[in-house]
């Protein structure tokens, strides 16, 4: 595995059957009934317009929304870490998964404040890096920022 990670970090080689196996396992995990609820709420219903709204969910311990948001964030932070460490091919992930960009686009305007208020300077850092260090991620981010701005009736930030 170390050789594979080193080759990927050096831009050598593409996805292999191990990447496919990991991606299929990640897909299987996304199908868990509770994760489906989390994914639906985060991507379809959660539309924060202030950092205070996000913090309200993060502070609402024991609620479905709190559990779902934390589950979603943690899942995609782990996925991003796999990519950054060369365990999972970025292009293969980006071919079929965009949910993490959805949440990042929603939280990006408040990220500095969220990191300060949570006391977690690395809050969503893996996801941020996954989106911002990829041309495909940046393109998808720009598209989603336009969608969310249109829904709010404002210009993208």
Structure summary:
With 157 residues, the protein is mainly α. The protein is built from ten helices and no strands. The chain has one domain (2-7, 16-152).
Secondary structure blueprint with pairings:
Elements: H1 2-9, H2 17-30, H3 33-45, H4 51-59, H5 64-84, H6 90-96, H7 99-107, H8 111-118, H9 125-132, H10 135-152
Helix pairs in contact: 3-5, 5-9, 7-10
Characteristic terms for this protein:
157 residues; mainly alpha; globular
3D architecture notes:
This protein has 157 residues and is mainly α. It has one domain (2-7, 16-152). It has ten helices and no strands. The longest helix is centred in the middle third of the chain and has 21 residues, at 64-84. The protein starts with a helix and ends in a 5-residue tail after the last helix. The model has no long low-confidence stretch (mean pLDDT 91).
**Which regions have little confidence, pLDDT < 50, spanning 5+ residues?**
none
What is the strand content? Answer: under 5%
- What's the end-to-end separation, in Å? 40 Å
The average pLDDT value, as a whole number, equals: 91
Please bin the fraction of helical residues. Answer: over 70%
Total helical elements? 10
Biggest sheet overview: none
> What's the alpha carbon Rg, rounded to whole Å?
16 Å
User: Please, how many domains?
Assistant: 1
* 3D shape: globular
Query: How many DSSP E strands?
Result: 0
The string of secondary-structure elements, in order, is HHHHHHHHHH
- Based on secondary structure, the structural category is mainly alpha
């Amino acid at each position: 595995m170390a050789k594979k990670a080193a080759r990927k970090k050096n831009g050598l080689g593409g996805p292999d059957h191990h990447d496919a196996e990991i991606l299929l396992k990640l897909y299987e995990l996304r199908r868990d009934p509770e994760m489906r609820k989390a994914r639906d709420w985060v991507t379809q219903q959660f539309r924060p317009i202030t950092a205070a709204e996000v913090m309200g969910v993060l502070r609402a311990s024991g609620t479905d929304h709190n559990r779902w948001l934390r589950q979603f964030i943690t899942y995609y932070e782990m996925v991003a870490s796999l990519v950054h460490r060369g365990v999972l091919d970025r292009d293969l992930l980006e071919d079929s998964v965009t949910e993490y960009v959805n949440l990042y686009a929603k939280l990006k305007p408040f990220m500095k404040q969220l990191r300060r208020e949570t006391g977690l300077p690395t809050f969503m850092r893996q996801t941020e890096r996954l989106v911002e260090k990829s041309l495909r991620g940046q393109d998808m981010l720009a598209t989603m920022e336009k969608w969310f701005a249109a829904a709010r009736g404002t210009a993208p930030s």
